[in-house]
Structures are given as structure tokens and as C-alpha cells.
Amino acid sequence: MLEPELIKSYFYQISNAVNYCHQKAIMHRDLKTSNLLVNLEGVIKVADFGMACLFAEPRRFSSTAGTRIYRAPEMLLGSQSFSNPSTSGRLDAFLRR
């Protein structure tokens, strides 16, 4: 089991990476554990931008993008509209064992 401080560090790094991508108008669209690289010092890098896309104005996206178990609830419920994530002011996250 991971120590709480390490979990906080990982969450902070992933949150910063997502924020950085969104500031650059990039949506990863397949963020999952197998796309996170961790080095021996505990530094996380986000990998595999194969499903990533740029966003500008609200538009429709395929609800089939990304790995199903990691999809946002609104995507699982069939939403195809998406607005700029930098305007949402929040990051929805689920911490799983």
C-alpha cells in the first residue's frame, strides 16, 4: 500500500500535468494508470497522447474515446458536448485502490 504522502504527491503531479495540457488547449482523452510513467525519484510523466486532441470552441466528441473504465461519468451517460476545461475551474477525480 502506498503512503498517504506519496499518494498526495502523485495526485498533485497528475493534476498539474492535466492543468498544463488544458492551458495548452490539449485534451488527453485517455488518462489512465498505464499512461502514467513514474521514475525512481517518484516523478510522474503523462504518456500516450495518441487520442489527444486540441480544443477551442465547444464541439462534439465521440463518447467511445478513451478506456471505458476510466471515462468520465458524463461520457458513460452519452454526453458528446464538451466545453473548454480551463473554464470549469475543477478537476473531477476518483482515487481507486
UniProtKB/TrEMBL annotation:
Keyword Cell cycle: no
InterPro entries, sorted: CDK, Kinase-like_dom_sf, Prot_kinase_dom, Ser/Thr_kinase_AS
UniProtKB keywords: ATP-binding, Kinase, Nucleotide-binding, Serine/threonine-protein kinase, Transferase
Keyword Kinase: yes
Highest taxon in the source lineage: Eukaryota
GO molecular function: ATP binding; protein serine/threonine kinase activity
Cellular compartments per GO CC: nucleus
One protein family per Pfam: Pkinase
Family: Belongs to the protein kinase superfamily. CMGC Ser/Thr protein kinase family. CDC2/CDKX subfamily.
Identification of the protein by name: Uncharacterized protein
